[in-house]
Structures are given as C-alpha cells and as structure tokens.
Amino acid sequence: MTEQDKQDLVAQIRSIGGKKAIDTWREAHPGIQLDLSGTDLSCADLSGACLAKADLTETDMSWTDLCGADLREADLIEAIMFSAKLRGADLRGADMMRAMLRMANLREATLRRANLTRADLYGAQLTESDLREARLDRVDLDGANLRRVKISGTILEVGRFLPPLLNTWDNSCPDRRAQLLRALEARKALRSKCLKWTYRCPQGHLLSGKCTGDAFTTAWDTTYISQERLLKLLRWRRPKTFKEASV
Question: How confident is the model at residue 150 (pLDDT cuts 50, 70, 90)?
Fold first, then answer.
C-alpha cells in the first residue's frame, strides 16, 4: 500500500466507521496485507474490525475503540495505544514489542502467545485477560489490574510481575492472601494446601480443590514461583491494618 492508499483508507475509517471501511477494503483487495503502519488512527472507531495480520507498526491508536477487534498475529511493534479500548479483543500471536498501552482497557482480551516484550502496560486494565504462553519480558506492569488474569506458561520476570499482582490481591482478596501466607509459613506447597480448602472467600474466589481454572491459583502456584520468593514479597507488602489471625 502506498502512503496515499493508507491516508485514503484512514479517511474512510473516520467517515463510515472502521469495520465497514476495512471489510470493504479487504473485499476489494483479497490476498493483500492490510498496511496502516505509521498512520494516525487516534480516537477512531475500530470496534469489531478485522485487523488480523495487519501491519500496524508505530500506528497511533490512542483512545481508539478496538473492542472485540480481530488482531490475531497483527504487527503492533511500537504502536501507541494510550487508553485504547481493547475489551474482548483477540490478540493471539500479536507482536506488541515495545507497544505503549498505558491505561489501556484489555479486560477479557485474549493475548495468548502474544509478544509483549518491553511493552508499557502502566495502569492497564487486564482483568480476566488471557496471557497464557505470552512473552512478558521487561514489561512495565506498574499499577496494572491483574485480577483473575490467566498466566499458565507465560514467560515473565517474577520481579516485575509480582508487585502489581500483589497489589491487585491486596485490594480485591485479602482473605486468599492471608491463607497463602500461612500456607507458605508452614512450608506447605500451595497446590497441596489448596486441596483442603472447600469454601469461597467473601470476594467469590474459589478456595477448594475444584479451582483448577482459578487464575490466582495458577499465578501463585509454587511450581512457577518459589515459596521463599513469595514469602519475602508477601511479608514486605503485608497491609499494616490487616489482622491475619482473624481470617
């Protein structure tokens, strides 16, 4: 695609809506890769649009609505997606290396096998997102909401991932946090301890042997993170006003 072709398509997206404009373009250009790299799509409506395998390198999509969009295997290297709406978006296999996703809403998004190396996810909403098998090397997750995130098989740096996950747990489920701390202090593996829990905490998270799909159990499984490492961080971030003996 020439630069003029890109600008014409951007104009169509802003005029008639992203999904309709892109569907029309794909019908007219079968077999050709969609290339919108380096364009300005900020504040555009691309909800539900088919952007699979599209080249969106360095594209500005700040405040863009991408809810439910198909971004499978899309090239999003260094894309600017500040405060973008990506709820329910399919980003499986997408290359998001060094992408800027500060304050983005990725709730319920699928990011399986996505490459988020060095991505900026400061303050991002990742609740119930699927990060299984994703690469999170050197990613900035400071202030991110990781409640119920799925991370089985994720390639991550424990030091960067644990602080925001601990903060999420502090705010959403102190009961589970206390139970984990007590289990670790007793030097018992989380999985074996979990088999004895047969109730739910007040926030609704399962605390029984049936919680194999519970993201917190996966995240805190000691097969991924050592007990010593967890115990050290949990003690360091223990809320001053929280009385674990009362749990």
Answer: confident
Which CATH number does the domain 1-172 belong to among 2.160.20.80, 3.40.50.720, 3.40.30.10, 3.10.129.10? Answer: 2.160.20.80
Q: What is the pLDDT of residues 206-233, one digit of tens each?
A: 333 334 444 444 444 433 445 566 566 6
Residue 201: CB partners within 8 Å, gap ≥ 6? 173, 175, 176, 179, 207
Phi then psi for residue 221, to 5 deg, are -60, 130
Q: What is the pTM of this model?
A: 0.69
- The domain spans of the chain are 1-172, 174-246
Question: What is the C-alpha separation between 116 and 179, in angstroms, rounded?
Answer: 32
Q: How is residue 98 written in tokens?
A: 């060094």
